[in-house]
Queue: 3 jobs
Job 1
Amino acid sequence: MAWAEGKYVLLTTYRRDGRAVSTPVWVVGLDQGRVGFTTSSGSGKYKRLRHTDRVTVQPCDVRGRVKPGTTAQNATAVVVSGTEYLAIKSKVRAKYGVMWYVTQFLGAVGGVVKRHRIPYGDVGVVITPTS
């Protein structure tokens, strides 16, 4: 299954103690079967990816419910910046349109309310299938 065809994939990252943490993310297609997404440098998934590049990916809906008939696939994820990040960000904006701006705005409002604002989508992640 081509991960980039759907709107969301369930990205599972791993804590230092080995516990899995799953999060639905937007993805865009890159070259050679890879996909990319943006995230915040203040997010938990970013922190977990800095520890280990091991992830699993499975098509899902906005709430993280996996699509029937699909299975999780092993992959590696690498945090990127610079031109790679800008290319991913551009593709995400093009694919998700106004929702990019809506979620950015809601994140800013939530940060003000919680008094803990984190940057929105300031790093890119490239996922490469391993099996």
Job 2
Amino acid sequence: MKILKYKPLFKERCIEIFKSNMPKFFAAEELQPFIDFLDRDIEDNYYVVEKDGVIVACGGVFLEEDGMEAGLSWGMVDVNQHKAGIGKMLTEYRIDLLKEVYPGKIYKVDTSQHTAGFYLKRGFETIEVIPDGFAKGIDKYVMKMGAIA
């Protein structure tokens, strides 16, 4: 497996990965914001995981406009590849990248009840839970990791 910088030619595969995670992990109403993100907001901070020549995961990092917090954005693994260590590898890569590119910041991730435990294991703490915060049946967990130099 290898991690590559996102390129527009990966867009359709990333959309397929997103759709593979519907409706449990992502709601249908989140698809268009994800597509808009791929079209406009990725800058140089979005990545894909290639396994055996196929893109199987994607995820990025960001810095808030006010510069106070940085975090993980739109991380996902093809549903057929869950529990294979791919999400762990990509998440650890992105956390290491945050520490390198945005040292000393508070790191955040907005996730759901289905993946909050995954992020707890990586050092994030739940700050807030918003019932149905992403969509009906998908609660929003706002999670943060303290400043790390």
Job 3
Amino acid sequence: MKHRQKVFDVILIGSGPGGVIAGARLAKENRRVLLLKEEKYKPSFQRDGYRFIPFSNLSENLVRPSLLKKISFPADPGKDFKKEDKPVPTVSYQVILPEVRIDLYRERSLLQREWKREFRGERTQIETFCTELDRIRQILKKIKTGTSVSSFFPLDFRPFVRRWFAFDFLPRKRADQWLSLLSPEFRKFIQLRMIAQGNLHSDFFPLSLMAHLLGDGEEEETGESVDPEKVTQCLLETFLQSGGRIEEIEDVERAEVKWREGFSLSLKGSEKVFRSRSLVLNAPLHRFVTLFGRKGKALSKVGEKIRPRYVLVPFFLGIDERVIPVGMKDLLVSLFDLPKPFEGGNLLFLKLSRKGDETQAPEGKRALTVGSLMPVGKLEKESGPDLQIGVMKHLSHLFPFLENHIDFIDRSWAEDQMECWSYPHFFYEADTDFEWRRGIIPIRISRNLYGSGREHFPYLGLEGEILSGLLAGEEIARRFRS
């Protein structure tokens, strides 16, 4: 067995962007880094000339340019993630409720006009709420321009004393305390916006977090549309060029923790054993709770702070361009029945391929990706047909005569992929209050064990995952130097 053991400085389990960012950083510092990639997991789906990329929230399509620059390594010219040459849309996405349809304009005046039109009976209360969000945004802006602020803004890891004397405290009020004075429709509208831009389901978001996420069009930079699969592929190429190694495996069967020797990983269906000083869990943490056996107490304790509540199940539809209603945008959040729970097809996240983009769909066709929530405890394949009935009922409401313009409906990708430990599409709930600028759980879970997925900053969506990777890489590099 010994001659089959391979020793590395760092092993990454999973190929999410956060861990790959950390791995590329460490490989550039001449560390021996191995990425274990699940061979079964596929990031996209192609059929009959259509190409679909499943997504877990709308933030995967809107990422700040400055954050993308942080993961472009100077030694790799041409690997900068640039947006394609196309006009920047004036509408980020749409939110549809039973009696309300809102275009999320980037320009503040247009967005306010939408609010006043759809919620005209509570204009004064909404303006008061918006004024408070504006006040908090000014505080955040002041913090951002401060000389001692973290380079990973909005995250804040300054010592308590420095934060105290900086006099930049944000209000600790929760958003529900303000929203309780507004109508159920407006409250649901705000809640859907928060859920759509992150991976956290909550009725008690901090008001300062809401101010940060809902600052449409007010920031100096607006998010640019990115292709998540292409970004991940670029990162993997950078990782390999930096000296990292990738091994496709069936599964990690067991992890042993040895105080002096670090971690020892045994693989399913293989006699290979990989050892490393540090280990990065680069996939949903709840997938690894049993990996360490009785020595996994630290991971179990972390898991108590945040747990998956829903899984986002993707349906892929090839449809005719003619079925799309006038004015419907490429990104959409729709709730069919206001008082009902989100599962069962009642809440849908939709992404339409761009009109005329033949890399996504044949001429005159559009690729429609539809995400529907399912409680994590109901992932049996037998639930698929029932969920599809609810999804199609909702879609028929949005797209009149849809049944006459469908090329196919495919849910096979979801049935195959949701069992993979690399599958990242979960919506979480936190069991305790948390300081959102410091994260729900720490990057360093225990001695030499790190996480780089979405559980750290789920409310920041894809940006949170990128930030977790940057922080993990920095933390591990610092510990190697010490």
